[in-house]
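Still learning. Show one?

>
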Amino acid sequence: MTKKQAGKTILFISIFLILVVMLTYMLRTNGDVKDRLCGFYAEPKDSVDAVIIGSSPVFPCYSSPQIFGETGIVMYPMSTDLQRPVAQLYYAKEAISKQHPDLLIFEVRMYTGNEHDMTNNMANSRGATDNLKYSKNRIDLINAMLDESKIEGGISDSDKEPYTYYFDIFKYHSNWRSLSRPKQWLDALFSYPDPQKGFFITDDVAPMELTDWSDVDESTPIPDPQDEYLTELLDYLNEEGQDALFILTPFDETKEQAEMFNYMQERIEESGFTYLDMNDHIDEIGFDPSTDFKDYGVHTNASGSEKVTSWFEQYLVDNYDLKDHRGESHYDSWQEAYEQWQVNQQDAMAVIEDHVANGTYAAKTDEAQDEE
């Protein structure tokens, strides 16, 4: 083979692989998680001050547009449904590689979960792996999630063949019809702006009472795999010299979970990082469990989100030196997101007030029942 022929072969293979990657991004299942992560990749490099990583409590609770409009802090959520704790290390690496944020924030609720239970449905893993761009971080995440040596009893789901994660086009090849939608073509680079900067507003109401476990002093270790994942994450953050904050979003926790979070607090603070349990600040936040949850103590609605975000953004202002970008022209999209959030919030609050007045409350979901 001549050099010219070799060059043409390499060019052909390169173009083919690029097209396969682009097609894979387009065929991946649509939804708010995909929009959120594509939005993360669309943000200009080194323009985000803080990245918050975690499971589904994150994106309906912490309003990035509100935080920007009221403080000028640019915080973006890298949040996926039922995100297993093992993912946080690799999401942190991805965040640092793309944005070099001053602060990484980790929501810790999932660390009390049983790893085998979380692998019964590998969709919990795919939500994290299939919403990252192709990269070494993504490969490492897949390998970590499929490492059965860390999971007592192994992975019980049949959907665990590694090649369907490395090349997820094998999983989503049946989505060909979706290519008829113009929006699908925006996915080709897995990078397009999210108008609400990853925030997802909700207007359901599910009234309940929270149990106050703030006087619980006992400490119970979290499950072994989660403890190991936490150790790896803390070690990495210290090696990188990366500032980090670990938070617990308001929810209806059990006494056993409260003891596990006490254990996490000890471990996190021993490693030199800050732990913030918002269940200990319910009164300061002004949080009302009879109006501020959308699903009986699992996730906040728009009313709860506004309260938690207002309190949390002030915590960030008081404790971290994060820049105020309001008025800077290259953050115009964030100002637009804030203005749209104000409209969306007003509409959502009207619906919430109507639900409360008429007693039209949300049905209990399986997830809400599991939390009881």
Confidence is low (pLDDT under 50) at residues 367-372. The CA atoms of residues 202 and 302 lie 5 Å apart.
